[in-house]
């Protein structure tokens, strides 16, 4: 029988989300149903609602940082059973494509196909509205709901004693941010780092730089509250870009720029600033998501003369399942902060409030508890 659920639904880009009663079809082979206990709200969810991904079909349920309890399993599910605590990962690596076989699980071409189609990995849609119309699954997870149908490869079993409302953000913010520093850029011990944008991902880039042993970690944002929070995560220097020129401030701190600059805002202006902040031979890592059709302008001769490297970062260049469990172990060892990342909890009906607080810099990460 169909499972009753409540979900935040995007029906028109740029308009407030509605929380609707929906039905979930029975899980198919290798699929299961999870009762969501908490779901982090990522800037990518906000970007989706604002129409940054116009090729992704709507209506759609956003959300990809979910945690909860397995309540039903379909055929051929071998790794999980009813009652297991899990959290979502939005890259269901197939383990058989060229990217997976070369160890780049975060670039899995089959998982990407499902993400672009906003479907489950099977290609099916399992969400229906009250009129029986199909609704799409953002990143194959659609976690901003009370219940979800997902492929077993889109969840990780929680084997450590960690609160579900804290572990939810592990599946994107932590994997992306910490991974950006440790895996995409490969921050070296004793180096200098600048991080532009201090949301959930930006704070985790700071954590990653701290774990890597960076000597100078410069946090850059427009809000003093976020800059103050950044100190807890490992920032050694703070720059409010609303009051001072970040390029001049970074030059005063470092002398000639940083070894590694990270952009985590989804703004072309910030991406170009990250390039400007980087010293000769340095690495620029673009983590934020800008709307489609927008280009970055980089001085061609300067790129040649300085030998800077510009990298894109997709999901922290991670092996999602393996790295998530590694980061959980770091959390249990007191080396990685999760509790402090969750600034506030919301009801599902307050999803538009989460987006507003995110845009106005009031939170690092908001978590919805259906």
Instruction: Specify Rg, calculated over alpha carbons.
Output: 20 Å
Query: How confident is the prediction overall: mean pLDDT?
Result: 96
The largest sheet, given as strand count, sense and whether it forms a barrel, is:
7 strands, mixed
Quaternary structure of the protein: single chain
| Terminal residue distance | 22 Å
Unreliable residue stretches: none
- Just name the CATH architecture of the largest domain: Alpha-Beta Complex
SS element count, helices: 12
Query: Class of the largest domain in CATH?
Result: Alpha Beta
Strands, count: 18
Q: What is the string of helix and strand elements?
A: EEEHEEEHHEEEEHHEHEHEHEHEHEHEHE
Report the portion of residues in β strands.
Answer: 25-35%
Name the CATH homologous superfamily of the largest domain. Medium-chain alcohol dehydrogenases, catalytic domain
Shape: globular
Structural class: alpha/beta
- Helix fraction, binned, reads 25-40%
| CATH topology assignment of the largest domain | Quinone Oxidoreductase, Chain A, domain 1
Notable characteristics:
370 residues, 29% helix, alpha/beta, 2 domains, 12 helices, Rossmann fold, 6-stranded parallel sheet, Quinone Oxidoreductase, Chain A, domain 1
Can you offer a commentary on this structure?
The chain has 370 residues and is an alpha/beta fold. The chain folds into two domains: 3-162 and 338-368, Medium-chain alcohol dehydrogenases, catalytic domain (Quinone Oxidoreductase, Chain A, domain 1, Alpha-Beta Complex); 176-314, Rossmann fold (3-Layer(aba) Sandwich), CATH 3.40.50.720. The chain is 29% helix and 26% strand. It has twelve helices and 18 strands. The chain has helices at 43-49, 98-101, 109-117, 164-167, 173-185, 200-212, 224-233, 246-254, 268-277, 300-306, 320-332, 351-359; strands at 3-9, 18-24, 31-41, 60-61, 65-73, 85-88, 127-128, 134-137, 147-151, 155-157, 192-196, 216-221, 237-240, 258-263, 278-286, 309-312, 342-346, 365-368. Strands 3, 5, 6, 9, 10, 17 and 18 form a seven-stranded mixed beta sheet that branches. A six-stranded parallel beta sheet has the order 13-12-11-14-15-16, sandwiched between helices. The chain has a five-stranded mixed beta sheet with strand order 1-2-7-8-4, with no helix packed on it.
């Amino acid at each position: 029988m169909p499972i009753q659920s409540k979900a935040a639904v995007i029906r028109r880009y740029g308009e407030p989300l509605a929380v609707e009663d929906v039905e979930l079809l029975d899980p198919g082979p290798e699929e299961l149903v999870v009762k969501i206990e908490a779901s982090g709200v990522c800037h990518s969810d906000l970007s989706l609602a604002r129409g940054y991904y116009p090729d992704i079909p709507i209506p759609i349920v956003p959300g990809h940082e979910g945690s909860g309890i397995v309540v039903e399993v379909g055929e051929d599910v071998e790794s999980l059973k009813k009652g297991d605590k899990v959290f979502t990962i939005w890259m269901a690596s197939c383990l058989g494509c060229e990217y997976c076989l070369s160890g780049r699980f975060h670039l899995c071409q089959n998982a990407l196909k499902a993400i672009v189609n906003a479907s489950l990995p099977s290609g099916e849609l399992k969400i229906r509205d009250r009129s029986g119309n199909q609704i799409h699954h953002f990143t194959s997870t659609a976690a901003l709901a009370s219940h979800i149908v997902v492929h077993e490869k889109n969840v990780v079993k929680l084997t450590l004693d960690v609160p579900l409302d804290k572990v939810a953000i592990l599946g994107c913010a932590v994997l992306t941010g910490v991974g950006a520093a440790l895996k995409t850029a490969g921050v070296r011990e004793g180096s200098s780092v600048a991080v532009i944008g201090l949301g959930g991902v930006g704070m985790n880039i700071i954590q990653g730089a701290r774990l890597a042993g960076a000597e100078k970690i410069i946090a850059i944002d427009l809000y003093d509250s976020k800059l103050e929070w950044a100190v807890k995560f490992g920032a050694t220097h703070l720059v409010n870009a609303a009051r001072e020129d970040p390029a001049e401030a970074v030059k005063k701190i470092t002398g000639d720029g940083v070894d590694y600059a990270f952009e985590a805002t989804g703004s072309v202006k910030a991406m170009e600033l990250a390039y400007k902040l980087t010293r000769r031979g340095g690495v620029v890592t673009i983590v934020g998501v800008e709307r489609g059709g927008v280009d970055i302008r980089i001085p061609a001769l300067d790129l040649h003369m300085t030998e800077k490297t510009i990298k894109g970062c997709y999901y922290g260049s991670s092996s999602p399942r393996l790295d998530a469990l590694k980061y959980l172990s770091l959390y249990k060892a007191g080396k990685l902060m999760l509790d402090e990342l969750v600034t506030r909890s919301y009801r599902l009906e307050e999803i538009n409030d989460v987006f507003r607080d995110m845009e106005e810099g009031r939170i690092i990460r908001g978590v919805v508890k259906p």
